[in-house]
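Task 17 of the worksheet. Students: predict the tertiary structure of the chain below and write it out as structure tokens. Keep your answer in the requested format; marks are given for formatting as well as content.
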Amino acid sequence: MKKGLWIAGAVALLLGLLFGRETFSYVGTFAGMCRDNAKEAIPVDFQIERAKQEVKNLDPDIARNMHLIAKEEVELANLEKDIQQRDLALNKARKEIERLADDLKRGDSTFVYCGVTYNAKQVESDLSRRFESFKQSEKHLNVLKERVGIRKSGLAAAQEKLAAMQSAKEDLMTNIETQKSRLEMVRVAQATSDLKFDDSRLSRTKSLIQDISTRIDVQEKLVGNAKANAGTIRLEEKSAATGNIAEQVTEYLHGGGSTVAVKLD
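Model answer:
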């Protein structure tokens, strides 16, 4: 360890002597280049799998948020039931207070409730206690309603956040699959461009077929000409078959064809 510290110190001193105040800038630039080169050296397949794993790591957070939201929904439902019951109780208390207050306003000295007789002072004391309790209960109920409203707003925000998180996860997975498909297409294109076909045999075969076709064309031409010559219709007869014998003799004798006399029968 001491040796390593000495070496590090020597390197730092040397850099300081070479670059002075710009040492940190050079070191930072060099570190950034090394980091970028190291990142570029990582295979894309590995990066895609890493991205998939990062997306999968969102599942515990999503599950935890879903649990918290479900718990909050249950608690708010119970609170709303409690508020409804408190509202009913306050309405009943309000009616009883109004009844006692109306009775006292009549100015009677005694009052009978459920077969029991009470004097005015007892009714007044009971009304005072009821009224104070009513005001405290109403105040507590209003605070409770306000808290429920705040918690509902928080629940709505949490639900929106969860929905956005789930949607973002789906978008990320779709994007990852898209990048994977693009990578596969790039590799297919690279593999296709690297292929070197040996088309010499193909060229020889094409040349052979062309030679065969040419020879067949020549044979077809010869057969066609032979048939044409064999089937020609003669339109003029030979000169020996035309005219009479006298004309032939005259032509022969006086035309310079021969000096032999022709004997006529």
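Marker's comment: Strands lie at 110-113, 116-119. The helical segments are 2-19, 23-41, 44-56, 58-105, 120-194, 200-230, 245-254.
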